[in-house]
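All the exercises in this workshop are built on plain-text protein records. Sequence and backbone structure share a record, each on its own labelled line. The question running through the whole workshop is how a given chain folds. The record below serves as our worked example for the rest of this section.
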Amino acid sequence: MKTELLSPAGDIEAGYAALYYGADAVYLGLQKFSARATATNFDAETLADFTGYAHSLNRKVYVTINTILQTKELPDLLETLDACVAAHIDAVIVQDLGVARVIKQSYPDLALHASTQMAVHNLQGALALKKLGFERVVLARELTFNEIKDIKEKAGVEVEVFVHGALCYSYSGLCLFSSLTTGKSANRGKCLYPCRECFLTETGEKMHLFSMKDLALGEDVLKLPGVSLKIEGRKKNALYVAAVTDYYRSILDGKGADSAKEERLKQIFARPWTKLHFNGKNKDVIDKDFVGHRGLPIGHVISVVKGVLTIKPTHTIERYDGIQIDVKGQEKPYGFSLEKMKVQGHPTFKAEEGQRVEIILPPKAPFIHQGDTVYLASSTSVKGAYPYEKPKPGLYKPKYPINVEVKISSQKIAAISQGQEVSLDVALNEKALYAEKVEQAIRKAFDKTGETLFSINQLHVHNPENLFVPASLLNEIRRTLYARIQIEQKKSYLPSIEKIEHLQQPQYIIKTDNIASSSLLDLSKFAEIIIVLSKEIKEKDLKVFPKNKIRLSLPAVCRNVEPFKEIISTFLALGYHKWEIGHFWGLELLPQKGIDLSFDNSIYMMNPQAIQMAKEMGARRVTLSPEDTLENMKDLASYSPLPIVLPAYTDPVLFISANCIRENPCSSCDRQRKQWDIQLKGKTYQVVSQNCQASVYADKALCMIKEAQEIHPDFIRIDFVGKTYTAEEVQKIIGMTLFSQPIEDVWNANLMREI
């Protein structure tokens, strides 16, 4: 593919701005199933209008249906996909395997792109999705240039890479923090961004441990030819979209990273910038002291005396510009509108760069220190720097070509199209002087398609007596005909699923990443034990358990699969044929036949279409998501085409991150397990850092043992993964579970609420 500049559009104005300033393609969301649910988004009419305009410019439009759907939402999905087909969009960006299956079977002409919410972070993940029919993968933001290059060269699919905008602390699609703590799910477009919150550390300090800087690759995008370069920002306004698109268009067109455009972009919206891990492991990615938009740095405070702040700005400032200041001890920069300022003691509306400016602070301003950084956060002049053109509304709405036949006699006029016939009984006696003018008048009348979706393809006129027809009669019969025509649409449908009979009584499963903690268990009470594989586990470690009860589990994230290739090969040769995967990459390393494959809960299963897709991918059972609701879990247990596993006691990982919070440099890091306790709003969380990966857990386990009786799963799984459990603690919790005793100090997340 040719290099593509892909810009965001949270509304149609941002879309027009993106196209005007050089986007090759625009991605946008509709009213439902968008991972930016709080953006304005598009309805079916504006989607059709905008797509038609984009196509007139030879640009592309991609629609994001990149959330996880619950069972009851599947009928509404058809309406959304119908709108995509009607608008002739270029591709759909998808996270949910159920959505992918519906598109593959019911809308095969829609191209599939794998959302970054699918957390594709290695070559094997991309290869697996290619086999599922995805034409493009949107890679995880955490990847290095070398990893991106390897996937692009070897995967055989189009590659899309984020190059600018906001970053998540967790791998996108693997974050459950907002969902499990508030019911507002990132996987359903409603994230409340707890990663931006200020946490209390073990030392008593308050800091934004997980608040990421903004990605800005700048001229490094030139290292990525033949890639779609994606700008984040569907919640940003048209001004921002115009500025960021213009900035990268300039780079791609060989004009370099224009410093003036960069400064305007930072002024419009910017946290501190980072290249993340594009050029290798980078620890300077988190903005620990402040959160939110800062703006363009324009100097430092010289003094503050009696409510008057003095500064020598490095850029021109004007009255009513927005100013922000980093104030020590405050979570967010202090901002105000510049109402009054003086230069050389005289009031002024405008101060040039380098002038000594006295700014009158608003009443009740916080204590500002000498040396504090001052930012230009909103500029009156910049607001008018990005005009853009847009078409007349409705001008580019797609039209359906129709053929019309008009028959004229002395007693009747008839018009026929799309199986509909309309006639008027009239007396026509006047002969036309020129036959061609009658045809011109008829065509002119029927070309007036107005607000309808029709355009005339062929018009056939039968007027053997060469009769004159008044325009009023032609308009009347045209309006009546167009009102009756129904464009034949493909009937939308949900593909069938293969419902199965489920177990009458659930069986119990143990899952652990610490073999020693399970040493006191009596496995006769359990169908199997799932052991999370790592490079350290050897065959001798597994001999404490019956081989026929062992299932080996591959983790959700694996940046280097080479060690696992050998491990998998070894255990397969030893007769271990029961496996679990936490991500699509595992499909590429395991054989397609001869194994019993289970999908872990990080491959989301919230609707029966997703489960049927898993079955078609070779899974023999699936695991329900810990962020799901009781109502939906009950529906899935009733109608699932595969046996289902309920993680009834588990410590779900809230964040899985490639961003380290250790203070030590990488060169002196032992990469061994290290754990901290942190607090947010009175609740305690554990951060576990190991092997360059950080994971965050709640201090309480999620427990659905009681609700399992209502859900009726085939398997009840008890997890001891991520956090540290002693053998005695494991034995105690298992005993309480098997005998249905209440377990104290646990929570049930989203079970009793909507998400």
About this structure: The chain has a mean pLDDT of 93. The longest strand covers residues 400-408. Residues 238-252 form the longest helix (15 residues).
